[in-house]
Amino acid sequence: LLGQILDQWFESEPLKATLATDAVIGAMASPHTPGSGYVLLHHVMGELEGRRGAWGYVAGGMGALSQAIACAATARGAHIFAEKAVCHVLLGRDGRAQGVALQDGTEVRSKLVLSNASPQITFLELIPQEQLPKDFVQRIRQVDTRSPVTKINVAVDRLPSFLAAPNARDGQPLPHHQCSIHLNCENTHLLHQAFTEATHGHPSNRPMIELCIPSALDPGLAPQGCHVVSLFTQYTPSMLADGQSWDEQARNAYADRVFDCIEDYAPGFKASVIGRDILTPPDLERIFGLPGGNIFHGGMSLDQLYFARPAPSYSGYRSPIPGLYLCGSGAHPGGGVMGAAGRNAAQVALKDFRHL
To answer: Which residues form the Amine oxidase domain (predicted)?
Structure first.
């Protein structure tokens, strides 16, 4: 249990609760849920520019990272087709992957196919079910994809000023504006209570909020004096109680609750809001193809990790379809902007390619 680990090392409840957020981030779990300690480990393992456990910000926004990868690929001869939805994977008579068919009817032939989509989309939508082992299909269907995350992107006309650390007179960003700011995390009981409400189909009354202000580090993201604020919030169930849907009223009611909480820490925040974009779990699934809205393509619980990710006997990036590989967050070692799954999958695919 994460709580036991934190109790061994720390005394301060606010510090323990703040660290606990990285153990439940993106997970429908409480700090008291068995296995939550791994999710914390997953978020602090590795290093950035020699600093262990450090995280970095991508100048220009996350899309700039995608563009950098795309430029590196095209410089080496890759062809990238954006906004071209894949309809299904092409299979030969021997059952091998032979390319993909696009929704516009175009067929792209290839010796290998690597899918960065979720295991659910890859194996339940793009492959005929009769081509896959029944136990494998059942395993993919049973993957826990519950997500507690609602992401809210906000445009504001001034920098938030927190009661705990008021802004400078010139309104310039201070060191804390350039970090991840955790709200409603005074103690782990608050997190557990927020989780419990979601398990009953209700958005948390005091949501866990991770607030980042990317424009404090990268001024080009917003006009002078203005800022963009990124809110990573939970817990919000995909399915609301009593059969209610995440309609416009429900989405705005939850966002208003989040903004009320921020207002308690930073008076004047609500008045500074110019616009907001609310992405509930169903929105994250519809727009980004995240199953259940899960940012990791499936829960990072111990029964869905290591040799069991995405299914037992298929953790090595190969799939039941020869020539088809899984290289996204649903593969080992799981989610996060680190490229480990893709790098490992590429090495396996290259090894197989030499024998074709």
So the answer is: 35-163
Domain boundaries, the chain: 2-56+146-288, 83-144+294-354
Residue type, 165: A
Name the pLDDT band for 42 (thresholds 50, 70, 90).
confident
**CA angle (32, 232, 305) in 5-degree steps:** 50
Q: Which amino acid is at 183?
A: L
Cβ pair 21, 186 in contact under 8 A: no
Rg (C-alpha) for the chain, rounded Å, is 22
* The one-letter amino acid at 36: S
Task: Say if CB 142 and CB 251 are below 8 A apart.
Answer: no
* Beta carbons of 351 and 155 less than 8 angstroms apart: no
How confident is residue 22, by pLDDT bands cut at 50, 70 and 90?
Answer: confident
| 311/113 Cα distance (integer angstroms) | 19
Characterize 56-78 residue by residue with b for buried, 16 or more Cβ atoms within 10 angstroms of its Cβ, and e for exposed.
eebeebeeeeeeeeeeeeeeeee
**For 83-144+294-354, which CATH class?**
alpha beta
* pLDDT given at position 61: 87
User: Over the stretch 253-299, which tens digit does the pLDDT of each residue have?
Assistant: 999 999 999 999 999 999 999 999 999 999 999 999 999 999 999 99
